[in-house]
Design a protein that fits this description.
The chain is mostly helical. The chain contains 7 helices and no strands.
Length: 207
């Protein structure tokens, strides 16, 4: 889901950078108001490292293109949507600097899709369905988060005029829908495991 430098106009990239900076500023403000900020920072660092590791592992897919797990939906469910956005932002910086994924000008756009859209939509759907069934809410949150993030990326590419809707619908949507199902199932097992071995992790204040 990483966009590369040069794929979108610089003035559009600036818009996404403004959204990203604003969101990170809100996160830092919220973090400063939490009672256990040191613990939150530690968990944020741990999940950032885990997300970087997960994204560096290429997994074969039926589509002939290697896939990478996001891990951001899991962070949104455990730490909250703003924390997940911060993790995504830090992860994208490291991926760009060390792994050659993404780019400097499109870091804002990538954060909007992999961070803002993915985290907020995951958390919203997770909370909406959590009253009905916890496992279903984890799966639905993860699935819908990835799908909505994909739609946001499609809109970014259409606005930049670098692709047509038919091509994007035939390539991005099926591919990320497949990833959404796999990661959704994986997150159900992960959250279930955490609830048994470290239930206090799921009770952290969400920001």
């Amino acid at each position: 889901m990483h966009l590369m430098d040069g794929i979108i106009p610089l003035w559009q990239a600036a818009v996404y950078w403004i959204i990203t900076i604003t969101t990170i500023a809100i996160y830092l403000f919220k973090l400063s108001k939490t009672d256990d900020k040191e613990r939150k920072v530690v968990y944020t660092a741990i999940f950032t490292a885990a997300a970087i590791a997960a994204s560096s592992i290429s997994i074969p897919s039926p589509f002939g293109v290697s896939m990478h797990f996001f891990l951001i939906p899991l962070v949104a469910i455990i730490l909250g949507p703003l924390s997940a956005i911060a993790v995504a932002f830090l992860c994208l910086i490291v991926q760009f600097l060390l792994l050659g994924m993404g780019g400097a000008t499109v870091l804002g756009a990538n954060t909007v899709t992999i961070g803002v859209a993915l985290s907020l939509s995951t958390y919203i759907f997770y909370k909406l369905i959590s009253e009905l069934d916890n496992r279903l809410s984890v799966f639905a949150g993860t699935f819908m988060g990835i799908i909505i993030a994909t739609i946001v990326q499609v809109l970014i590419l259409l606005w930049a005029g670098v692709a047509n809707l038919e091509m994007l619908m035939l390539t991005l949507i099926p591919f990320y829908m497949f990833i959404a199902v796999i990661e959704g199932i994986a997150n159900v097992f992960i959250v279930s495991f955490i609830s048994k071995v470290k239930p206090d992790l799921l009770k952290l204040e969400k920001i």
